[in-house]
Structures are given as structure tokens and as C-alpha cells.
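Hi W.,

Here's what went into the run:
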Amino acid sequence: MNAAKAMVDIAEKECKAHGVPITEKRVNLFSILLQTQKAVSAYELADEYERMFHEPVPVVTVYRVMEFLQREHLVHKLETANKFIVCSHIDCKKKHSASQFLICRECFTVKELSVNSGKYEELKLMIQQAGFLLDSPQFELNCICQSCHAKED
Amino acid sequence: MNAAKAMVDIAEKECKAHGVPITEKRVNLFSILLQTQKAVSAYELADEYERMFHEPVPVVTVYRVMEFLQREHLVHKLETANKFIVCSHIDCKKKHSASQFLICRECFTVKELSVNSGKYEELKLMIQQAGFLLDSPQFELNCICQSCHAKED
DNA sequence: ACAATAGTGTTATAGTATAACATTGCAGTT
DNA sequence: AACTGCAATGTTATACTATAACACTATTGT
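Here's what came out:
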């Protein structure tokens, strides 16, 4: 949990540096994501918030806080799963241009990998040749993790 | 429209070869997808069905027919968009191992590209090294098409 | 103290998806 | 033809995902 605390500190510093306030709800929701270590939905976050902080939070607020945290590059939204997950690069300095998410379809454990910039340029080129432009450099791969795979059948 | 008719014929043959019945609803919904040339949601399909065939179809049926068409490899579901699109490889014989979908976030025009098998194996290996197994070889890229891009701002 | 703005809450509603059960219709048998 | 079994479809209800519109509160700068 100290690691989570450290992350929150980093997040607070980053937000202050950007001149945006990181309020109590934002910190709390961010903490839940840090401690969960899995992708969770907005409604799961709202439930967990009430359990942990003995206070209800409307899902609208959860969605809004998630938008905020995404803008601050602290959180990602997985579009294939409709769930949120903490960015795994918060504590490293350099900007990551593109991420590949390996998402377990059973337990929603997620591994975030960085895309090698050569491969990324190659892909962008291929997309351009097909008459499109890449809008968000986020790649989600529907996977199964080893432990869930071992349990199957 | 003749191209669509030809596709329906192929689909009917394929289903018969598998010993599964392709009913009127299935043919009709498949035809709508063929003619739309874009990704469409289950509810849009239900609406379009009523317009085209002067008969309502419940969305449950749409979802079930889409499942059926996916099993027959005639249709793909785009998880990032919650929409369906006809498979672009129906009329070619060979199985396509993996597809990359370029999806316009504005108009939902979609381009389906085949993934080069060398790249695919490379990716699978990388995923395995990360402790996951690829579950569905379908890659969705959030893009914008040139004509929508031209319209922006 | 005041205005301006950002954050949060409330209520309502739209959109996505499936469970549970009922009914229909067709295929193969007797 | 009547019977049986199974797949397809319909009905109803419900859960989950997401946002619009508007009200209220808190903080900041003047």
C-alpha cells in the first residue's frame, strides 16, 4: 500500500504542476484503481468507493473523475471492456507514445506494454496508406492470463 | 446490389455446407449489413429491418442472429464500437487468421486488413512472454477516415 | 464582498446486452 | 397424420453502460 501512497503523491505533484486541483474524490477514486490492480467499471468503482469510504458517490462523478484522470494521463479507459485502469507509467518520466494492453477476458487483469516506436511508425504508415489516420494510439488485445487459462475446462 | 446478392448466395451455400439453416431473418439481417457498408449497432439493425422489410424484429433476435453470423464467419463484432460489420473475406477461399480493423470514429466506415502471418506470430510470442495468451486475433484501431478528417474544424 | 469558474449532485433518459421463459416451426420417426 | 425433439424466434423483464440538463457548492482572484 505504500507503493500506492507514493503513486498518489506523484499524481498530486503532477496535477499541481499543471495547475489543476486534485480533490478528495479524485484522490480516493485514483487510490481504488491503484489498489485494485485490475480494470474496473465505473459502477464497480462507485460500489467500492462506498465500501471503502463509507460515503456514496454518484456514477456521474465517477465518469467525470475518470475523464479528468485520463486527461492527466493517470488512467486509461479500455474501450473493449468498458473499464478503467491506472496507467502503468506514472512513475517513469518519459511520455509513452503508444500502449498495448493485454486484457484477460476472465479476470480483467491487464498488462500494459509500450509499443516500440519503429513498429508504431510502421503501423501509422500502413494506416495512412489505407486512407485512414490513427486517432488514438491505444491497442487492446483480448487475451486470457495464464492463471485463468489453467482453470479453464 | 448484385454484389450483395452474390454474397448472400455464398453465405447460403456456406451455411448449407455446415448443415445449419440460414433463415429469412438471418438472410435479411445479413443483407442489411452488406448494403450498409458501415459498422451498425444492434438497435440500428432492428430499425433498418423494420424500414426495409415492413416488419419489426426484436433486438434479442438481432443479437442472436449476429452471434450466429459470427460463428459462421460472416460477420465481425467490433468491441470498441459495439457495432457489427460484414466480414470482408467472405468471397475469398482462404481462412484469414487475424484482422485489423481501421474504424472511423465519426462515420463508422471500417476497413478490414489482414495481418501478415509473420507479424502475427511475432505478436503472439510477445504476448506469451508477457504471461498471456491471445484469445481473439482481432485488432481494432480507433481512426478517422480521410473524408471525416477533412470536415473537421 | 463579489464575480467567475470548476467541481459535484440530482434527476432523467438513452443506449447496450442478456436472462428466463413461452411459443412456433421444422425434421425425422412411428 | 400424429408424435417427439430440437432449433429459432418472441415476450417480458432487467442489468449494465453512459451522458444530458440543470442545480448547487466551493474555491480563487479581484
